[in-house]
Write a structure and sequence with these properties.
Layout: H1 10-19, E1 21-28, H2 32-36, H3 41-50, E2 53-60, E3 65-72, H4 74-97
Antiparallel strand pairs: 1-3, 2-3
């Protein structure tokens, strides 16, 4: 029989929590094709430029929304979210002008 310690790995958990962040961004489904871009090029460029992972985590047909998860270092996650929010504001303003 092997003894296993059940002590929490709090130093590791603290390190991860300090270095990593997860943010969720819910958008209108009309914006999703623009965020992702043709053949995924826009979202891939955002991933590379900001150094984050971005993936769809939920789609609500009733609410007509899509939720993205953005994962990475806190500062990078915040910058990626702000960039997407600015793009959405720009696209919304352009649609309202029409």
């Amino acid at each position: 029989m092997v003894a296993v310690s059940m002590a929490p790995m709090s130093p590791m958990r603290d390190f991860i929590a300090e270095k990593c962040a997860v943010d969720r961004l819910t958008v209108n489904q009309d914006m999703v094709p623009r965020i992702i871009g043709r053949e995924g090029k826009a979202i891939e460029a955002l991933r590379r430029s900001r150094g984050v992972a971005i993936d769809v985590v939920d789609v609500s047909k009733e609410k007509r929304t899509t939720t993205f998860a953005i994962v990475g270092q806190k500062e990078r996650v915040e910058a990626a979210r702000k960039e997407v929010e600015k793009m959405i504001e720009k696209w919304t303003a352009q649609e309202e002008e029409m």
